[in-house]
Amino acid sequence: MPRANRPGPKGTSCLTCKQRHKKCDRRLPICERCEGGGFDCLGYGHILDTGSRNNSLLTQPTLIMPRPPRDGGSGDFSDGPLPQDSLLEVTENTSTRNNVHNAPTNMAPHADSEPPTNRSLLVALTDSPILIFQKLAGRFIQVPHHSFDPLKLFLTSPFFDDYLLTQYMKLAQQWYFKPANMHNHLLEQPIVSRLSSFTSVSRWVSLISMGMCEAFIRGDTSQNELHNLWMQHIGNSLKRELSYDPTSHEAQNRRRDLIHVSILRTLIIPNSDLYQVLQSVAPAFLQLAFSEPALWAGGSSFAYVPLMNVLNLGSHELAYFALVDCSCAMALGLPQLIEYDTTILYWLISMLVVISHRPRATGEVLSDGCWIGGPDLENIRLQNHGWR
């Protein structure tokens, strides 16, 4: 039986502020009051007018965003060897409510209210990354989170993996510095390693990064605020999860995602905020670095992070953090957040041939003047692992 709407003006506050009887600032996807106070924002799904739309939702799918005009569609960026009929329909049937919720991996705030039945979302795999992200982001805001998550099924589908890989390879063709043909596997390694994760968080981050690259190529800055807002929300969610269980194996993947999304934020936020973002993610960098035994091979001192080992480890999150850290130190005149060991051992000389074929970031890190000093990292190492 459908729930009767109460008389009076329609509410505008998120469900958390409504329950706490607080004034809501109505920011999307989560309100600033909940985020600043450390509360889980339950979103705005409870104020959606569901009574009059149930009948239409039973007969036709719901499109979260309007279809783009043909002349301004996805552009050349999203064209690729994908079938023209690659259209995924994500459907949920919520006639029987399941009270089991997933915790604490919510990637966006959701309301604890009864959703309409048979909601659908049509996503064409020939759409641009920006358009797909807008559809999925709007979907996350509209529907509550429950045990059957159709969006999670979509994000982890093989078709979506093929889409991201195709877009990534097309993006790589526009790089100024390209690896040699014999090292194409190095080019695919970052996106393939992220797609090997079964968490939807990594897929979200990959999709946002594709949208940012597409916007950069077009010279479109209108989506920066949306991308920054969602990356900030994802980062805060990852920090909360790490505070619950910082020692599990899955925590390592969350730290990688946290570093990745934070580095992406540095591309679109003001320069005045860049150093603060790096400071907030530096502990995750150190914890991830000290959890990699291969990083400390060859008798490296635990007082400094060995830069050459970071570049050869294959962890792109660690390498790009080192790049941004060193670059900010030179550009802003501020001290580096991490102390690096720039020693090149004789057995690493042969690696330079391989490094010369890697993406530009590796060479830029090598050219940065990294300073050395201070035994503080030794104390952090002992605290994290109790090594003696």
UniProtKB/TrEMBL annotation:
**In which residue ranges is the amino acid composition biased (Polar residues)?**
91-105
Region (Disordered) location:
63-118
> Molecular function (GO) terms listed?
DNA-binding transcription factor activity, RNA polymerase II-specific; zinc ion binding
Alphabetized InterPro entries for the sequence? Zn2-C6_fun-type_DNA-bd_sf (IPR036864), Zn2Cys6_DnaBD (IPR001138)
Zn(2)-C6 fungal-type domain mapped to chain residues: 13-41
Pfam families (alphabetical): Zn_clus (PF00172)
Q: Has the keyword Nucleus been applied to this entry?
A: yes
Cross-referenced CDD domains: GAL4
Q: Which UniProt keywords apply?
A: Nucleus
Kindly provide the name given to this protein in its UniProt entry: Zn(2)-C6 fungal-type domain-containing protein
Lineage at the top is:
Eukaryota, Fungi, Dikarya, Basidiomycota, Agaricomycotina
